């Protein structure tokens, strides 16, 4: 399984070196460039405390405790602590190679497919550590749907694409109805209702990505993970996907990784900022992050001074 | 910036950069290409000339066919090439498909004549149908018992295949051969045709019509075939293996409405042949005294060159290919799937896997004569199988092509994008579900292409057959996998050492041409499959 660029240890190390240098200049903080003894890890606990009141409005679905991820000897995540609330959109932003995709892939254990990846710490889904020995990753992934960066429909018909999850999960029911419902919720039904038997690859890029979203929601998961779902799309398709994500948050917990800070500001309720070295620097309500972040590094990143 | 006042010419007009070495290199490469092509082509022309002896025909015969066949064909080719490329594509397939399907019909005929009798085949079909029904019914009744379901899925077909065929064959009354063929070949093909058309047209009625038409036309042979001088048996095979694919293709071209002009090409060729034959018969021109004629394909080998035929080796090659398809492909594809999808790629086990993969590559380069010795030691000395049988020949050549099958299948599987595997795992699919639903369907065209090319290699192998003791001459086509057989290249080798020059030049050339045509067709099929599925992206 090839790692995508985000989690490639080589590119990560490069970013770490350059950004670490810039960051110590900006903060005038020499320790900040050392990923292992970073004092900002402590401050992330403060963020958790400050996030707790707003998090208590809604139930926590996913929480990580002291989560470390390594690719061979390279550390991709450093003791991440986060509480992701139910039925809201949580955006994860940060520069390239900061580990945001890695974190997303930890949630549904997609990193199991990367032989080099090793996970320490706890990641709790509905109160259960998903890395416990008695957790079957396949069962976990049936509860947590995923949409990938590049649209990746199967070379099957549109109908078969949407029913794929139902087939492999052995879901009973009226497939025609489920397909129509999933495609409607993915805002694709009106465009494809007359060509359900044609190949999913015949659709445009934006339609393909909405098909992938329909495929992910068809088996009715609890959580939907999105790994930069709009990064390969043009602005019109992007805005459609964004509208869709806001609608989805009424029923699902959505965790979305994005490069695009405006996008995070537009659609998310909560925002987590990962910075170089794989540390979660700040996690709070989106308004707070974009208007009055606690950390100078986050402000620098958001205002475009680095990253 | 660069607005320096240049007094001379514009840049580069006074001194161009030298291309001499590049040109020389290009010419050398072109020369190498031409040398390779020309040397092979000359050899082929030489052999074809020996096999067909076109110059032994009357001048009138040659001129007649040039006028009736060659000129119209060339004219049409020119038209397609310059004016209507789409029709040209149609023309190539419309001419090739009938030829290929006719040859396939011959292959099926040989199989049903010598290898599996119609009754055996029918009883196998009945057994599998019963097994499928039992498995399906069990799945309906016991929906959740996974292990039990798996055991039923494996055990019932095996039990059915062991018990039911013998039971049926021991019945006191069996239907006529034609009726058995109707039930066991025509009906399944009609069902497949109906399903295919229904899926293509998304219309139940069209599917039913296509299936019904296939059935009716095939069944009409029971009454009509004797009128045109064929047995109902051959009629049905022609309908099912030749007419059905050609009909489906013609229908699809007409429906698409693009390149319909290409359909005229096979008519032109066939018409040219008929006109040529009629005219030369009427005027009494003698045709070429060709070594490769119908008699050569249907007669057994003989001591006199004029009577020598190729039929038993043809049957032997078909039998050997059957053994190879059944033995090498499942093993090879299975190994490829394991190495690509399951084998560890890190740690000590990963290194072992790397070592194995490197050595599979090495095995692909081991000379075929060595595999012959291996087959001799393994299957004949150790395994106790009879020497020179189709079974041993097929097994030995299977060993030889196994590395090729594994490597080409591995390449096809690793060409499946990882994003598709991720999508599948992300939907909560198990590894098995991912391999079955995503990886294998996507890799199948590539696997098939590689396997067909490996078959092409297998059908031409000679040395292993010599070592395992395939007889120099087989006068009666083998009727079982455990009787002595000869294959096409083995027979050609025999002819090459005959003293009579007519064998060495004429009969041998005819055999070589037959072998090459079979090879070309197989490689052509592989290319068509590859192109068909590549274009989709």
From TrEMBL, chain B:
It is a multi-pass membrane protein. Keywords: Cell membrane, Membrane, Transmembrane, Transmembrane helix, Transport. It is found in: Cell membrane. One of its GO terms (cellular component) is plasma membrane. Residues 314-526 form the ABC transmembrane type-1 domain. The chain crosses the membrane at residues 28-47, 59-81, 93-112, 118-138, 150-172, 178-197, 209-227, 233-250, 262-286, 314-339, 360-380, 386-407, 458-478, 507-529. One of its GO terms (biological process) is phosphate ion transmembrane transport. One of its GO terms (molecular function) is phosphate transmembrane transporter activity. It holds the Pfam family BPD_transp_1. The keyword Membrane applies. NCBIfam families: 3a0107s02c. PANTHER family: PHOSPHATE TRANSPORT SYSTEM PERMEASE PROTEIN PSTA, PHOSPHATE TRANSPORT SYSTEM PERMEASE PROTEIN PSTA-RELATED. Belongs to the binding-protein-dependent transport system permease family. CysTW subfamily. This is Phosphate transport system permease protein PstA. It comes from Natrinema versiforme JCM 10478.
